[in-house]
Structure formats: structure tokens, C-alpha cells
Amino acid sequence: MTDRRDESWVALDAGTDPSEHSGRLRRAHEQFTTAGRVTRPVRPLVAASWQRSARARVSPDGAACVELADEDLAACRDGHPLARVMPLIRELTGAYAGDGEHLVAVCDAQGRLLWVEGHPRIRGAAGRMNFVPGARWAESAVGTNAPGTALAEDRPVQVFSAEHFRRPVQRWTCAAAPVHDPRTGRLLGAVDLTGGDGLAHPHSLGFVQAVARAAESELALLAPPPAPEAIALGALGRDEALLVAGGRKLRLSRRHSEILVLLARHPEGLTGDELLVALYEDEAVSPVTLRAELSRLRRLLGPELLASRPYRLTAPVDADFDTVARRLGSGAVAAAMTVYAGPLLPGSQAPVVARLRRRLADQLRAALIARADPGLLADWAYSPWGAEDLPVWQALATALPGCQQAAVRFKLRELTAELGLATGSQRPGA
């Protein structure tokens, strides 16, 4: 019979001896950390995660850093959407949390543990590796682990024994599943079960996935979809915006995405000439071209949503980029980061869209540097758009707890060498 474990997200085949398999994994882990080679019986899921962990300069030793404590942790819990479904999660996982063998944890989309619940004895054992509320367990921070890898892969995963990248975690087995906003699809966090070898069973993976789906269903009941006349527009981190209107989800073309962004920014409306200047660098583009695009967009949306003379949207727009700007304006930097999924229509060359994109990114980036919060700075630095952002990496090196400074300073040396700059020649945020 063909071994299908490598095609699965389950850690062990039925009948596999956990002790023997754990020993083989430890030897494979040693091969990878010393020679960079992935050998059997490492699953492709785990191999890919190990490679991401190595690229992020995660050390195989050490513990997670606690980034949220006391008032900050309480504020993040209170303001997080999953706080509303914690009673349901506790009800569904109560047998696990109370059996003295397992922990139930819930993290946010950045991998920070907000709730870790279970028997005091098992919580104490997990606390020795900083598996505690407020600690950051993102894959980019601590390597392969179920909640962090579930967030990175955006699907349920099990991580067994020495599949964990960090050695102090290899006595544990865990299963986790991501939780999404049922209306927008945005990743909110993950639900995790952590314990012994018994969790390396298909049932535990199915169970934690069922808990995550139940949480999403409860969120849908608690926060029903917007009224038909409302429009939700998501344009951050994607070239083709997502529009939710009248119960419909529409993926827009690139040009239609740009038009909707501009109309969302100008509820009073724009004339055809104003749209032409805002959208096209080439002044030779004919107004007929724009009118054809607007005609196609009106057929897509319906005349009840897109009016003309001037061109305008007839319903209020809840745009993700406006939400980020509002939260920044009120000083809620962490809340702004939870919405910022990347640059505004990153592939757009439309002049006004490009200016909006730069302005929003610069404002958020400056706020992060001024805030000097290591978790928020790390979220930006380890993102695709922040990978070469020298001032942010400099600010992160200054703000980060000592247990994570080595990897960041290594990255900083790489960046300064690539950019031909001497280390320390540019102040963070300059």
C-alpha cells in the first residue's frame, strides 16, 4: 500500500509507532540544522516550514518571546474578534482543557497567543518554553509549530514531536486550525490543541478544524452581513479588489479596482475628465476608453450602485484602506496593522492610486517606527513589502527583546551591505 502521509496534513499513519517515528524525525532534524538537507521521513509540509524557518534565521534552540503583558494583553484580548466566540470555544474544548494532559490556545493573526487554558500542571510545563498568553508563536519567530504553521499555510495542520523546529518544543505534539472572518475571509487567528503523542491522530486534527468552523459560524451569527445597500471594498495587498455588495462578492478587474478605489475616496463623485487624469499616465488615452470601462463596470454593479454626472457610488463604502487611515488618525497603530494586508493595489500604475498607496504605507510605517513596538515592527519587517525596509529593520533591532536580536542584526547587516550603507549611518525612521 502506498504511504500517503506525505500527501496528508496528518502527522502519523495508523499503526506507526510514535517513539520510533520521533527518533527518526530527530535524526532528520539534526541533518537539516547541521547540513541543510531534508531527509525521510519528513513530510513536505514540515520540510517547507523548516526551510521558511531557516530563511527567517530562527534558532533551533531558545524560547518564544513574550510581547504582550498585563494591560496590553488585556486590551488585545478585549478588542479581538475572537473574544466574542471564546465561550463557544471553551464549551467545545472543555474536555481537553480540563483533562490534565492538553492545552487549548487561541492566537491572533500575528501568532501571538491571547488565551492559553488547561490544567495548571500542564500550563506550568508549557510555560517553561514560553507557551503562555502574550508570547509570539508565529512561524517566522519560533519556527515550525502548529498555530504558527497553520497561519503560514492558512489551513489545519498537525505538528508531531521533532517536526517542531525548536528543540525545546519537540516533546510536544499539537494540532491547529485557522479561523477567518466569515464576511470578508480575513484571517483572524487560530485555535490550537497542544499535548502529548496522542494528539498525532486524525481525530484531533478533525476536531480542531470543527472548532474553528464552529467559531466562524458563531461569528457569522453575531455579526450578520452588511445591509444590501452597504458596500465593502478590499484593495490592500491585492491587485484585483474584492467588492461585497448586496450579498454578492465580486472580484474586480485591475482597472475596475482602480476606479472603485477612486470613487470610494470621493463620495461626492468625479467627472469623466477627473477620472481620466487620475487613472492614466498617458494623456493620449481617449475618453471613449474610460467610458467603455465605466459602462462595463455599471453592468457589473448595476445602475443602482454606480451613478453618473458625476460618476459616484450611491451607497456608503467600507474600504479597508480607509479603515487603516482612520485608525492611524486616532493613534490606534496596532488596530491599523490588523487591517493592513499589504500595499494598496500594489501593481497599479494609476497616478492617484500610486500616490495613495505611498502615502498610506509611509504613514503606517512612520507610526510603527515611532511606536517602537517589537511585535508590530516584526509584522512589517517579515512581510513581503517590509523585507528590505532598512529603517524598520533598524528600529526592530533597537526595540526587540534580547532573545531575538541576533537574527535581526544579521538581517540588518545583509541589508546594509546590499544597499552599500555603513551600519548605523542612517537613523531608524530617517
Q: Helix segment count?
A: 17
CA radius of gyration? 24 Å
Distance between the termini: 61 Å
Counting DSSP E segments of at least 2 residues, the number of strands comes to 11
Tell me the series of helices and strands, N- to C-terminal.
HHHHEEHHHEEEHEEEHHHEEEHHHHHH
Beta-strand residue percentage: 5-15%
How would you describe the overall organization of this protein?
This protein is of the alpha+beta class. The chain has three domains: 218 residues, Beta-Lactamase (2-Layer Sandwich), CATH 3.30.450.40; 146 residues, Winged helix-like DNA-binding domain superfamily/Winged helix DNA-binding domain (Arc Repressor Mutant, subunit A, Orthogonal Bundle), CATH 1.10.10.10; 59 residues, no CATH class. The chain has 17 helices and eleven strands. The strands form three sheets. A five-stranded antiparallel beta sheet has the order 2-1-5-4-3, sandwiched between helices. A hairpin with a 4-residue loop joins β1 and β2. α12 crosses α14. It is globular, with a radius of gyration of 24 Å. The N terminus and C terminus are likely disordered.
